[in-house]
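sry for the spam today, last one i promise. C-alpha cells for design, 384 residues
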C-alpha cells in the first residue's frame, strides 16, 4: 500500500512476513500465496507491500542462482505484492520452539557473518524493488546483546559498519538503487533506547545508515516519541524505517499476575520494564519477583495493533499513535517505509490465537486497515 504525504513524497506500508515461519524458498513462496495475497484481497487494494524476512538459507538460495530471484519476483507480481523493505534482524530459525530468546541476536555486528548476510540482503533487494522505486531498506539488530560487550567488540563492530557503508555505496554505484540499513533499538541490547543510539551511532553516513524505529520498543523503554525524534535529530540519525507495533501494558501488575502468566511463553524473549526500574530480560523473571510490581509495566510482546487485550491488561496503542504523529504528522515525512510487525500471533494466549489460516489473514488485514485509518487521519492520501 502506498500513501502520498502532504510533502508530496510516497510512504510505503507493508506487513512483515516474519510472522510466518519459512526457512527455504518454497516456504517463502507459500507465504505469498497463502497469506500475503489473501490479505491484499481482503483489504481490496491493487497492491500490498510485504516486508520480507529472508533467513540466511533463503538468502543463500536466492544468491546461488540468477533464476531464483526472478522466480520470487514473479510470485510477488502474481499476487499483487511489492517489496521495498526487508527484515534482516533474525538470521535463521526464528520460529523454532526454543530458538529465538537470546539466540536471535546471533550472529551480531562483531562478526563477518552478520555483515555478509546484510549485504547479501541489500543486493537481493535491488532486484526486488518495484520498477518505479530506487530506494530500499533493511532493518537489523542494534549491534548486539548487551553482554558481553567490550571495547574490543565495539571497535570490531565499528569497523564492520564502515565496511557495510562502503558495500552499500558500491552497490548504489553499480545498480543505481540505494539500499539503506536501519539499526533497531531493542530492550536488553547494546542499543536499547534512542539515547543509546545517539551515543553509539552518531557519525554514521546518513545516506546509507540510520535507525529502524520500533514503536513497541519505544514504549517498553517508556520513551516519548517526540522527545526520541529530537534526540535522533541532534545526533544526525535518520529514520530509515518505522515498525508499527504495540507492547503489552499493565498499569497495575499487582492484580494481573495470572493474566500476564498467559503471555509467558518459551519461544521469544519478552523483556519487561517497570517504570523507574532497570527491568528484567524476560517476563517470567518479572513474574517471579524480579520487579517490585508497584508501578506500571511494559512487556516486549508484540500484541495486535487493532485489538488491545482486555483489562486488567492493555496495549501501548497510544504510543504507536504518538509515533505516527511524530514521524508523519509534520510538514515533512520523517521516513517513507512503515512496516507492521506483529510476529507473535501464534504465541498469543490460546484464547486469543488465530486457529485457522483465514483467521490470521483477517487479523493481519485488520491491522493494516487500522494503520491506514491512522495515516489518512494525518492527512496522507492512499494511492491507487
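last one done:
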Amino acid at each position: 500500500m502506498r500513501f502520498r504525504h502532504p510533502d508530496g513524497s510516497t510512504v510505503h506500508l507493508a506487513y512483515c512476513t516474519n510472522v510466518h515461519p519459512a526457512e527455504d524458498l518454497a516456504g517463502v513462496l507459500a507465504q505469498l500465496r497463502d497469506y500475503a495475497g489473501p490479505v491484499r484481497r481482503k483489504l481490496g487494494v491493487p497492491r500490498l507491500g510485504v516486508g520480507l524476512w529472508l533467513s540466511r538459507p533463503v538468502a543463500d538460495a536466492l544468491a546461488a542462482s540468477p533464476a531464483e530471484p526472478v522466480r520470487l519476483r514473479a510470485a510477488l507480481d502474481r499476487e499483487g505484492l511489492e517489496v521495498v523493505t526487508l527484515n534482516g534482524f533474525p538470521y535463521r530459525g526464528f520460529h523454532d520452539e526454543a530458538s529465538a530468546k537470546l539466540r536471535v541476536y546471533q550472529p551480531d555486528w562483531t562478526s563477518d557473518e552478520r555483515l555478509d548476510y546484510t549485504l547479501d540482503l541489500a543486493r537481493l533487494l535491488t532486484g526486488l524493488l518495484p520498477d518505479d522505486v530506487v530506494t530500499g531498506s533493511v532493518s537489523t539488530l542494534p549491534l548486539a546483546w548487551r553482554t558481553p560487550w567490550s571495547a574490543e567488540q565495539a571497535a570490531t563492530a565499528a569497523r564492520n559498519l564502515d565496511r557495510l557503508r562502503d558495500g552499500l555505496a558500491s552497490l548504489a554505484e553499480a545498480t543505481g538503487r540505494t539500499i539503506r540499513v536501519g539499526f533497531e533499538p531493542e530492550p536488553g541490547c547494546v542499543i536499547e533506547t534512542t539515547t543509546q543510539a545517539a551515543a553509539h551511532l552518531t557519525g554514521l553516513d546518513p545516506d546509507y545508515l540510520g535507525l529502524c524505529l520500533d514503536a513497541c520498543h519505544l514504549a517498553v523503554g517508556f520513551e516519548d516519541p517526540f522527545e526520541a525524534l529530537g534526540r535522533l535529530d541532534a545526533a544526525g540519525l535518520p529514520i530509515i524505517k518505522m515498525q508499527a507495533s504495540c507492547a503489552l501494558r499493565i498499569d497495575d501488575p499487582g492484580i494481573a499476575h495470572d493474566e500476564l502468566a498467559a503471555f509467558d511463553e518459551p519461544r521469544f524473549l519478552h523483556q519487561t520494564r517497570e517504570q523507574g526500574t532497570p527491568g528484567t530480560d524476560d517476563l517470567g523473571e518479572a513474574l517471579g519477583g524480579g520487579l517490585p510490581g508497584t508501578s506500571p509495566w511494559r512487556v516486549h510482546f508484540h500484541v495486535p495493533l487493532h485489538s488491545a487485550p482486555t483489562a486488567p491488561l492493555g496495549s501501548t496503542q497510544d504510543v504507536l499513535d504518538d509515533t505516527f504523529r511524530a514521524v508523519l504528522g509534520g510538514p515533512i515525512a520523517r521516513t517513507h517505509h512503515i512496516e507492521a510487525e506483529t510476529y507473535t500471533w501464534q504465541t498469543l494466549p490460546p484464547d486469543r490465537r488465530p486457529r485457522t489460516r483465514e483467521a490470521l489473514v483477517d487479523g493481519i488485514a485488520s491491522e493494516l486497515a487500522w494503520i491506514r485509518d491512522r495515516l489518512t487521519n494525518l492527512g496522507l492520501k492512499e494511492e491507487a
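The mean pLDDT is 96. ok im logging off now
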